[in-house]
Here is the input.
Amino acid sequence: MIRHDILNLLAEHPEDFVSGERISQHLKVTRSAIWKQIKILQEEGFEIEAQTKNGYRLLKTPLTLNTWVLKQALTTTTLGSVIELDDVLSSTNDRAKELARLGAVHGHVVLANCQSSGRGRLQRQWESPRGGLWMSVVLRPNLSLADASKITLAASVAIADALRGLFQIRIGIKWPNDLIYQGKKLVGILGEVVGEWNAVQTLIVGLGVNANFPREQLSNSLSAITLQEILGYEIDLNNLTAGILKHLEIELQLLENNGFEELRSKWSERAVGIGEEIIILRGEQVLQGVFRGISIDGALILETGDGEESFSAGEIQLRSKLNSYF
Here is the structure.
């Protein structure tokens, strides 16, 4: 793409102007065509200074998602090897599953500026306005069926660590797949299998981060918060995406190297509610006990008067006895 070629030339000389003539000769297009592409880049949010005699200089990249900016920020080996960015999708997970069935490689990333039919666990609606990070990753891990189910745990640790590293904020993990800040939901994760759940070949990990928009854009019924509300400013979604993918790659490699005990330890350190009274809803059944963490299988461990019982993510809903953070 010619615009990316222009950006590459400008990025090679961050402190200097690059003349239109030099760009024209290098790319073998007219200076008029260069100017038209510069105007499009400016409309996309790139701050490019233009001086008649000197040429062009790249001053600032957009905070919104942009494939060129994201590729500059990526430090991963496999995740983000292919990036698809759409303006609107019904669901990034649905698109990623479609691509996986067509042979998408491990690490293929699907992004959307907004989703019209985003969803979370138990088919709950996930509101996805512009300004958030709505992303799904195609994964073809070297994992057993049992370990593959733990990828959402790995993703929650990765996102918590990315947010802490980038913004120095401590995020709590709510089992099995939400991240919260001061009792309010900031991030949701949805893991889905492509094909039959009997031999893991491909999984999709979708995540949604409430980022660059005010809390008022979400329904009042939701106990939610956004990064803009927490930090007081808009963040670079490209850096956030790159940071999450970096940490997710680390945790996936840990899982593939039989490192679930280390992952479980990391998860437990970041989890909310361990050692506290919780309520579990399983259909019409209501159970109460002390949250003791997660088992070697990634299941929630509840201690009751009758001993310990384990619960998988697919069968229950979780509530705090005090309703303080769930």
Summary: The radius of gyration is 22 Å.
